[in-house]
Structures are given as structure tokens and as C-alpha cells.
Design brief:
Length: 351
């Protein structure tokens, strides 16, 4: 039986966080799971409707940039462990407005580290601060090689610079104050509940509504894609079995050029929507490249696979089909998140 723990999971109303919350609430009835989220444009409690009323689940609406509030949350709920996902997460938004990324990703992370250190004083060895990060901190690869846990940091966008900074603070707290920490750096996720500003859900949404599919540059940039539930499973494994103060890279050994993903999505959507083959591809539109666009990300996930026994459960084609099915079955969800604030942002980005 698992020990009793009061785990604070931040960013649980977002894409990856909601899958992590669901996995922990359902798998560990002896854990109390506190989902702390400020509900930005990317946070949506509808993602967790199925957990409402569960005894071991509590939602706390709070902003991690508020230091005093973080101290209170730790103290009032007797927080024993943290899995920190809350972040500003979209590269294009970070190019438009880097400052928000510094507040949430850097200052917010330091606020949580401070609150944990204070709450766990005198018994630091009994508690864990797990920081969820990204492969983008390693920079951009040419056509060869992989990111290893030992690859030097070389962030290239305001988003990845803010995540790299937060990773450094986590390691600095481990070294300086002896906080027990662990960090994982994952590749691009896809799956249900992803906000439709990211490539895959944006294309699904646009294909459905016969809108142009904006491919940056020539579509030659490469990303390594992992199904979100496989990332949540990896987080579970790292939380329970990861070694103190280690880093684990998480990825699917699944590299795709953007243009190939978009073409594959078009084929899947043509079939699902009963359109003639080739119809949706006509929507592909090459647009101005992203500023400073990283060419290629590729994770070497051998460490987590060999040391902790994790491996991806889904092939990409299967995951992509599940994802398309989810978006087609959840039109209302899409409609609600694509109205209002998201629409304003969308107009600015693609006008
Ligand atoms: P997301 O944008 O979907 O969700 C982020 C969540 O954080 C939202 O619910 C939002 O409301 C919340 N949040 C933002 N600012 C906050 C604040 N100041 N206080 C409290 N809550 C706040 O992001 P995601 O894609 O689910 O990513 C989650 C984490 O995983 C991030 O740390 C991200 O860097 C990391 N990551 C993401 C990917 C990916 O492909 N999406 C890959 C690797 C790592
Ligand atoms: P994205 O989903 O924003 O993730 P990240 O930038 O964190 O990798 O983008 C994935 C890739 O798709 C990236 O190379 C940028 C590209 N892209 C487009 O070509 N068009 C788009 O409209 C978006 C949002 C992304």
C-alpha cells in the first residue's frame, strides 16, 4: 500500500497536468491530490469533470507568482510533495510577450521552492519536489544526435530560457538547501485536451472547419512526439522510483517533420470526415517562419527506460487516431476554448 501523502500538483487544469491528476487520483486513493492552478487561458477545469466529488481530490485556485499564498497553501494543507507543471507553455506567446514567462516559469517556481523549503524544514529528506520540464532547454539539434541528460543547456526561445532558468533554480535549491528534487525533460506531447494553439490540435480544428493549415517556414523542422498519457505514466514512475536530484529525459523515439505530421493528419481527417482523399491537404499554407525557430528536437530516453523500466505504450499512428477521435467527439470543448481570449490571440498571431 502506498504511504499517505498530500501531493500538490500545479498546473493540473492544463493539458498534461490534467492527465497527471487523473492518473494519481485514480491510482492512489491514499494520496490526497491538491490541484493548484490559476486558470489562465490554458487552464480548463472541464478537463477534470470526471473527478469532481472524489474524496482524494481538491482544487485550489491560486497563482504561483503569489509567494505569501504559496506559503499558506503548503501550511494549511500539510503539503508533503510537489509535482510542478504550472507554466506558460507556448513558444509563440513567449516570442510575443516574454515577461509573463519570467513571472510564472521562473518566479513562480522559486516561490514554490521557497514554500517547500520552509514547510519541510528539519525533515527535508522525507519530501520530494518534482519539477516537470522540457527538452527545449537543450536548444536545437542539426540532423544528427540526441539530447542526453548530460547535454549542456542552450535554450533559444524566451519559453525555453525561462524553463532552463527554473531547472537551474531547482538544482540550486537541491545543492544549497538540500531539498530533495527530481527533474524530467520531455519531448513534444500530443493527445486529448491540448489547447488548440499547438500544432496538432490547431490542425485538427482547422481541417474540420476548412481553414488554412499554417505551416511555419518549409515545414522541415523536426519534433519528437509522445502521447500525453505516456508522459503522465512516466511522471508517475519518476515520482515513485526516480533517484534523488537526478534528471530523466522522456521521449518517444518518434521524430517527425512538421509537414509530414500535417499531411498525415489530413489523411486521417479525410477518412474520418468522409472527404475525398487529398481534400484536406489543399488547406496546407506555408507561412512566415517562427523567429529563431529551433530546427530539431530528439530525446534519448534510454536512461528512464533502462533504470526505471518505463516505455511508451502507443505507436504514433494509433495515438494520433485516438487524438483525432477525441477532438471530433468533443466539439463543445473545442468551441468553448476557441472562443473569447483564444480567438483574440489567434487573430493577432495569424492575421
Ligand atoms: P498548458 O499550457 O496546457 O497548462 C499550463 C497550466 O498551468 C494551465 O492550467 C494554467 O492555467 C496553469 N498556470 C499558468 N500560469 C500559472 C500561474 N501563474 N499559477 C498557477 N497556474 C498557472 O501546459 P502543458 O502543455 O500541459 O505543460 C505542462 C508542463 O509541462 C509545463 O511546465 C511545460 O513546460 C511542460 N512540458 C510541456 C510539453 C508539451 O509538449 N506540452 C512538453 C514537455 C514539457
Ligand atoms: P508547437 O506545437 O507550438 O510546439 P513547440 O514549438 O513547443 O515544438 O509547434 C510544433 C512545431 O510546429 C514547431 O516546429 C512549430 C510548428 N508550428 C507550425 O508550423 N505552425 C503552427 O501554427 C504552430 C502552432 C506550430
Amino acid at each position: 500500500m502506498a504511504d499517505k501523502k498530500n501531493i500538490l500538483i500545479t498546473g493540473g487544469a492544463g493539458f498534461i497536468g490534467s492527465h497527471v491528476i487523473r492518473l494519481f487520483v485514480n491510482s492512489y486513493p491514499d494520496y490526497q491530490i491538491y490541484n493548484l492552478d490559476s486558470l489562465t487561458y490554458a487552464g480548463n477545469l472541464e478537463n477534470l469533470k470526471d473527478l469532481e466529488g472524489k474524496q482524494n481530490y481538491t482544487f485550489i485556485k491560486a497563482d504561483i507568482t503569489d509567494q505569501d499564498l504559496m506559503h499558506r497553501v503548503f501550511n494549511e494543507n500539510g503539503i508533503t510533495d510537489v509535482i510542478h507543471l504550472a507554466a506558460e507553455s507556448h513558444v509563440d506567446r513567449s516570442i510575443a510577450d516574454p515577461t509573463a514567462f519570467i513571472y510564472t516559469n521562473v518566479i513562480g517556481t522559486v516561490n514554490l521552492l521557497n514554500a517547500a523549503r520552509k514547510q519541510w524544514e528539519g525533515k527535508l529528506d522525507q519530501h520530494l519536489f518534482y519539477h516537470v520540464s522540457t527538452d527545449e532547454v537543450y536548444g536545437s539539434l542539426d540532423n544528427g544526435g540526441y539530447f542526453l541528460e548530460t547535454t549542456p543547456y542552450d535554450p533559444q526561445s524566451p519559453y525555453s530560457a525561462s524553463k532552463a532558468s527554473s531547472d537551474h533554480f531547482v538544482r540550486a535549491f537541491a545543492n544549497t538547501y538540500k531539498l530533495r528534487t527530481v527533474i524530467s525533460n520531455c519531448s513534444n506531447n500530443y493527445g486529448p485536451n491540448q489547447f488548440p494553439e499547438k500544432l496538432i490540435p490547431l490542425c485538427i480544428h482547422n481541417i474540420k472547419h476548412n481553414k488554412p493549415l499554417p505551416v511555419y517556414g518549409k515545414g522541415e523542422n523536426v519534433r519528437d512526439w509522445l502521447f500525453v498519457i505516456d508522459h503522465a505514466r512516466a511522471i508517475d514512475v519518476v515520482f515513485h522510483k526516480g533517484k534523488d536530484n537526478e534528471t530523466y529525459n522522456i521521449g518517444g523515439f518518434n521524430e517527425w517533420k512538421n509537414i509530414d505530421i500535417v499531411r498525415t493528419l489530413c489523411k486521417v481527417m479525410d477518412k474520418k470526415m468522409g472527404r475525398p482523399e487529398g481534400e484536406s491537404e489543399k488547406l496546407i499554407t506555408f507561412v512566415k517562419d517562427r523567429a529563431g525557430h529551433d530546427l530539431r528536437y530528439a530525446i534519448d530516453a534510454n536512461k528512464i527506460m533502462k533504470e526505471l523500466g518505463w516505455e511508451p505504450s502507443l505507436q504514433f499512428e494509433e495515438g494520433l487516431e485516438k487524438t483525432v477521435d477525441w477532438y471530433l467527439a468533443n466539439e463543445e470543448w473545442l468551441q468553448r476554448v476557441t472562443s473569447g481570449a483564444y480567438q483574440d490571440y489567434y487573430d493577432k498571431q495569424y492575421s
